[in-house]
Amino acid sequence: MTRKRPLVVASDEVVLDEILRLATVAGCDTERAPDLVSARRHWMAAPLVLLDEDAVGENEPSSPRRQGVLLVCKGEPREDTWRRAFAAGVERVVSLPDGEAGLLAELAEVAEGPGAEGGCVLGVIGGRGGAGASVLAVSVGLRAARTGGALLVDCDPLGGGVDMVLGTERDEAPRWSTLCVEAGRVSVPALHAALPQRRHGAVKLSYISCDRTGDGPTGPAVAAVVDAGRRAGNVVVCDLPRQLGAAASAVAERADLVVLVVPAEVRAAVAAKCVLDRLAQRTGKVRLVVRGPAPGGLMPDQVASSVGLPLLTSMAPERAVPRMLERGEFSPRPRGALDTAAGSVLAALRAEAGSVVPR
Q1: Which of 23, 46, 126, 280 makes an SS bond possible with 7, Cβ 3.0 to 4.6 Å?
Q2: C-alpha–C-alpha distance, residues 56 and 79, integer Å
Q3: How much is the pLDDT for 355?
Q4: For the range 15-22, what are the long-range contacts, defined as Cβ-Cβ under 8 Å and sequence gap of 24 or more?
Q5: What is the pTM of this model?
Q6: DSSP 72
Q7: Is the Cα torsion angle 8, 228, 225, 244 positive or negative in sign?
Q8: Would you state the pLDDT for residue 259?
Q9: pLDDT digits over 138-185, tens only?
């Protein structure tokens, strides 16, 4: 069945061009009518109605009252626009360019329909440098991709790039610097069409990696991508930097769960406590993953007590992992320590997100 299209009633060429441009960005087809008389046939059935100031002029006939009628104008509305908008049953006045993000969101909502179920967001952050957070994040992403959609988001510009873990660094794939994402709502189909994928057997993992240079993604760009992934019903796994800038904060504020990866070492536990102190300002949904070996015999529960977090799981070292990473052949051994830990993290994430309504 063909999805119903927004109805656009606009004779102002500037406003009309802006509406059609935003509709294209949102991947949303529109139905156009030159005036309210011509619009009557589609007025009540359209999921959204967009009018310009001329469409609510003094001589236009009144239309039946309904929800979802927006008046779109370029710049500040004219002096008498508010009165005429009220008389025409307009729900909201959108002034461009300030209201562009909101209008884009409305159009994307129509194009995509309601969000898919199962979408959830995980943040993975290291308690110290070299803790193995990126490796665990990729492992969780691959594990999630076995049973549904998954999206891996690299938020750490100093981490070397998740494409290095995936072994795809030589691919001419888009990275954050070439992915044209701004603040606001991103079309899910357009996003997935733009993102590269890493194949792992029959599994496909969509991902976006940081570049080797530059400041990394902005907070609004990360927020838009993460929100789109959740709406698509994906498990969105975000590799976070220990310095919690705007991008990491955007994830922490949206995450259903954040896991802090800490090697079983005293110094690592102290460093992780410093990271947690900053992370706790943005989210309270943090759990601990302890990674071996333990050169001093420190037990996982002792690390958890020192850091002050509930222990989610621990994992023994896998000798093959460093060699796989060096060769660009990362493939966690099924039911190995890393894959098992990734499964535990994924199960905890889904349990945390179980009471959350998909956005």
Answers
A1: 46
A2: 13
A3: 41
A4: 15/52, 15/53, 15/72, 15/73, 15/74, 15/96, 16/52, 18/72, 18/74, 18/96, 18/100, 19/50, 19/72, 19/103, 22/100, 22/103, 22/104, 22/107
A5: 0.75
A6: E
A7: positive
A8: 98
A9: 999 999 999 888 999 999 999 989 999 999 888 888 888 888 776 566
Residue with tokens 């927004």: 6
DSSP 113-135: -SPPTT-EEEEEEESSTTSSHHH
Q: Using alpha carbons only, how large is the chain's radius of gyration in Å?
A: 24
Q: What angle do CA 136, 311, 290 make, to 5 degrees?
A: 45
Angle, vertex CA 220, rays to CA 216 and CA 223, nearest 5: 95
Query: Do 110 and 47 contact (CB within 8 A), yes or no?
Result: yes
Residue where the block lists tokens 């967001």: 121
Residues of the chain with confidence (pLDDT) below 50: 1-2, 355-359
Quote the crossing angle between the two packed helices 133-145 and 337-353, to the nearest 10°: 70
- Residue 336 CA to residue 330 CA, distance in Å, equals 13
Cα of 302 vs its chain's centroid, Å? 35
Q: Name residues whose C-beta falls within 8 Å of residue 261's C-beta, 6 or more positions apart in sequence.
A: 124, 125, 126, 127, 131, 132, 133, 136, 289, 291
How many Å apart are CA 251 and CA 51, to the nearest integer?
Answer: 36
d(CA 152, CA 141): 6
pLDDT score at 311? 97
CB atoms within 10 A of CB 207: 25
Q: Residue 243 carries which side chain, given as an amino acid letter?
A: Q
Give per-residue burial for 314-342: e unless 16+ CB within 10 Å, then b.
bbebbeebeebbeeeebebeeebbbbbbb
